[in-house]
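Friendly challenge for the regulars: who can give me the structure tokens for this chain first? No prize, just bragging rights.
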Amino acid sequence: MTDARAPRVLPYGDDAVLVELADLAEVRALDDAVRAARATDPEAEAIVDQVPAARTLLLRVRDGADPGSLPVERWWAGRTEAAGETGTTEVVLDVVYDGADLDGVARLTGLTVDEVVARHTGARYTVAFGGFMPGFAYLVGLDPLLRVPRLDSPRERVPAGSVAIADEFSAVYPAATPGGWRLLGRCDVELFDVDRETPALLQPGTRVRFAAS
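First reply, four minutes later:
Bragging rights claimed.
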């Protein structure tokens, strides 16, 4: 896939570049292209980390490598529209759907509570990028009928394990924290554990399903 638009590649210290893109869809497409390149392209061997965000992708290289030599434009030109499909890991999260905002989401969407749950569990999600605290992952793939705004006034405390939605995303709060997303339920899962080899359970590209329990 090619077009006239190109990403903006900026130096980011001595060992990284920051790629600026137009939107999340472009970030996901380039993120997937780079992940694929790291498995097959010798010019991607120097990359030791890639960190997607809402409109940027950070690429960090090993000591002594030149981040400016990364062929970002070539990977961009070879990207596909099937963003988020390169990950092979799938995590299934069991959820008790008794959230404080479940009835409110049903009213906002014109659905019944059972329909809200069915649409939330029926979707297939992908981790787009990490969030504001360790283990928090922005999940894309939410059913369009469940897209609702954040609360007008955030809660002072959202319990750990809360399953929530806001705008185009779903997420699970890894720890108790203030938050403004609408709560659908709760799950008992350790999303971030410093003693694990990979501390964050939900890495960018990971596929996620929710199951009602």
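The mean pLDDT is 94. The longest helix spans residues 24-40. Your move, everyone else.
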